[in-house]
Write a structure and sequence with these properties.
Layout lengths: L7 H24 L3 H13 L4 H8 L3 H13 L3 E5 L7 E5 L1 H21 L5 H19 L1
Helix pairs in contact: 1-5, 3-4
Length: 142
């Protein structure tokens, strides 16, 4: 018999929602960002300039979510867009200097929140957790 409390997809969803809620409250309050906006900033900080399709793929975000997040960040002057000279239908997004400055402020806060979440785990447990999550992701994507 299925018991939600012991059903892995349910447990993963509950854990993910709890972490997302905590992050969302913090980032919205401190930085005025929604989770997709923060994710877009983090992706661009790691990879510099990307198309919205590449961002969606890198961040597991759908096209509409990327579009809305990008529009909000462009309006705030945190992201800029330029035409893709190789493809007139698409464009590249990149962080502005203000976007990079905000990322420099948010990244330590993100790492501190991760440290709080994992404070009760040993180093071995952290490695095991990451390994197991990557294995689950790989199997789910097959």
């Amino acid at each position: 018999m299925l018991k939600l409390d012991h059903f892995l997809p349910y447990r993963l969803s509950v854990a993910s929602n709890a972490v997302s809620k905590r992050i969302s409250q913090s980032y919205r309050k401190r930085f005025g960002l929604k989770i997709p906006e923060w994710r877009l900033i983090a992706i661009l900080a790691e990879r510099d300039s990307m198309t919205p399709a590449e961002i969606g793929q890198a961040g597991e975000l759908d096209k509409i979510t990327v579009s809305r997040a990008a529009a909000a960040l462009i309006e705030r002057g945190l992201v800029m867009q330029r035409r893709n000279p190789g493809d007139g239908r698409s464009h590249f997004l990149s962080l502005t200097s203000d976007g990079r400055a905000l990322y420099s402020e948010i990244a330590p806060a993100a790492l501190a929140m991760e440290a709080e979440l994992l404070a009760g785990f040993s180093a071995e447990e952290r490695v095991a957790l990451e390994t197991l999550l990557r294995r689950i992701e790989a199997v789910a994507q097959e």
